[in-house]
Amino acid sequence: MGKKVEVVITGIGVVSPIGVGADSVWQALLEGRSGVRRLDILDGSPLPPAIGADVPQLDASQFVRPKKALKVMSRDIQLAFVAAELACQQANTGPGKVDPDRFGIVFGADMISCELEELAPAYRQCMLDGTFNFGRWGTHALGEMFPLWMLKYLPNMPACHIGIAQDARGPNNTIVAGEISSLAAIAEAVRVIERGAADIMIAGGTGNRLHPIVWSRRAVYYPAHWEGPPHQACRPFDLHRSGQVFGEGAAAFVIERSEHAKARGAKPLAKILGFASSFEPCPKGCLPRGEAIERAIRLALASVGLNSREIGHVNAHGLSTRHDDKIEAQAIARTLGEVPVTAPKSYFGNLAAGSGAVELAISLLALQHRAIPPTLNYENPDPDCPIQVVHGSPVPMKVPTALCLNHTHFGQAMALIVAAPDF
What we know:
- By secondary structure, the chain is of the alpha/beta class.
- The chain contains 12 helices and 18 strands.
- Strands 1, 2, 3, 4, 5, 8, 9, 10, 11, 12, 13, 15, 17 and 18 form a 14-stranded mixed sheet that branches.
- The longest helix has 17 residues, at 75-91.
- The chain is globular, with a radius of gyration of 21 Å.
């Protein structure tokens, strides 16, 4: 076998409810500032009031080029585009800086919900005597639709728009796998580089659970039943956690061969050491038991020959549901012992396919500052979650490595290990 290809991260772009850009995000973490608040997206509906985390005052037109492309960009796409632009600015991948034919993209995304106001006119055309008539869709409804409306909602479009804007003509792919999408996209981007199909890639994920269609299916997601202040609703691993909170966000990373970064004078921000994915079957009506999470951790460690003492902190999925936190905490305890654990969802909730990317960005910032950010709202330890949750204030990082975890309620799990450049 040939020499293992070392892959480094040279650019980070993050768009989140607690900040746009790495500096603002890190400042929010230091201040313990939550992005969860009362939202008005369900006002006037019979559904309970919405508690969630949006990205306030984001003007994508400051970043999108050409600006007319905004007409075919859903919120998910805009979040991804801005994150990628920020990452590329930091990595200095502008025109003439990299070979466009060796520059690719892998991005994680969700099935994107259509804006209801865009469908309303077509829906009304299908109403007949108070009943929706499917037979009228082709003859009456389509004329009410924006001709390119579908391009706003295809999950592969974030990667497409980013590729066009950044002149990345290499491999272009999208992964739609729930909450593991981001980490899976980063892992695939590393594989593309290892296969020699590209020298440099943009990888990350984008997601948005702030939509009435999602809320109409809210029972599927075990949402928080919280009557206190909104910013206290998401409580990963806390004894009194009551369910997850929805949010929106995206993060992107420029990753490349270490030799390629050195040759063009790019500064490595971190190294991607290894990763692993796993799956456990979940028969209908059954929840995952945590076997896939534990297996993913063990396989990720084995892939790079590390032991539990060489992991500086775990960036947990920390969904804040009774079951998910329990199985994740117990898997961490069995494999890594008393490693410090932080749960960024406590700041902004579940960002769906964007979760892993934004959470990874936080661990990369932690590596840079050699400090592990605290988990918000962790006040009462749960005996069923026997892990060392960092809370109250940041703690010094003894080992400059991080293991990032994500999993889905379908039984998929992903673990990715990163380290400071000098590790």
